Amino acid sequence: MYRVGIVGGETHVGEVTKLAGDQFEIAVAAVRPDQADEATEAFNCSVVHDYRDLLADHDLDIIAVANENDRRAEVIAAAIAAGKDVIYDKPLAPTMEGQEAIEQALAAHPQRRVLNLLTLRGQPIWRALRDLVAGGRIGSPAFTHVRMAVRLKRADRPPWFLDVRRSGGLFLDLLIHGLDQVEWVTGRRIMAMTATMGNLGEPADEHLRDHAAGFCELDDGSAALCEGQRMLPDTKGSDYRVTVAGTSGYADLYGVENRLVVTDVEAADTEVTELPDAVPVVADWLEGGELIPQEASLRANRLAVLATISAATNERIELE
């Protein structure tokens, strides 16, 4: 059983805590003072307030990092330097400087591993879409459209999350999944991006960003549009959709409805009913699986950072 230390308590830390008692022993958590009581109850472990104390005073195998976005890169780099593997909620880092610092730490400690919680890769409907495309049922993908819409839920969000200077914006927090899906589903690599990001729902809040979109040029000449927003009304929590148009048909994924529909040379609008099993991404990583290779964990964040830069500069960005 792995001894785990948790830093922060935001969003997807449940992907780690649900393995407690099975594959993980949650030994200690480092959280803000205002999170201490909740963390003590939720994680059932001792609590400190500085991640450096967690690293220095406890014998740990893995650090699970789910703190504020703008403080995450520092913790991840320090954990790697301390000889720990790291599981982290997205984003890895909101800036290219943070990304490169972590890549340098990994180069200096090549035995260490990191995992980005790209949880969509483990879900049956998304795995089915990838299998369908890889199997050639709709021919070669020519255009992919990923749509990710969620409610803002302002009252439930911590202040840092609503401030682009700290959260990094929608590409890093939300559309990192969409950019990863473009490459994972199509099997192609993004070679250039042109992006935009803004705030239309609450323009009086100058640091809020509630919508974004990125046009992606892929290495085989195909294209993708990855767009998302946090403007859904309270009548709907989220709405994830994907369309992949190929040379012999197209496939439509409806995430909320858990449906995958395909039109190919045999028939139109056929629902795919046999879905692969779900794969817990953390368990797969622990077992040495390749559902989320380390290169994919790092690349998803790099794509999100570059899209954010493109949106800020109004420039097309080419990837090396």
Structural features, described:
There is one protein chain. The chain has 320 residues and is α/β, with parallel strands linked by helices. The chain has 2 domains: 2-116, Rossmann fold, CATH 3.40.50; 120-318, Dihydrodipicolinate Reductase, domain 2 (2-Layer Sandwich), CATH 3.30.360. It contains 11 helices and 15 strands. It has helices spanning 14-17, 36-43, 51-57, 72-81, 96-108, 124-134, 164-167, 170-173, 175-186, 281-286, 294-313; strands at 2-7, 24-30, 46-48, 62-65, 85-88, 114-116, 141-150, 190-198, 211-218, 223-229, 238-246, 249-254, 259-263, 270-271, 317-318. Strands 14-13-12-11-7-10-9-8-15 form a 9-stranded mixed β-sheet. It has a 6-stranded parallel β-sheet with strand order 3-2-1-4-5-6, with helices on both faces. The protein is globular, with a radius of gyration of 20 Å. The mean pLDDT is 96.
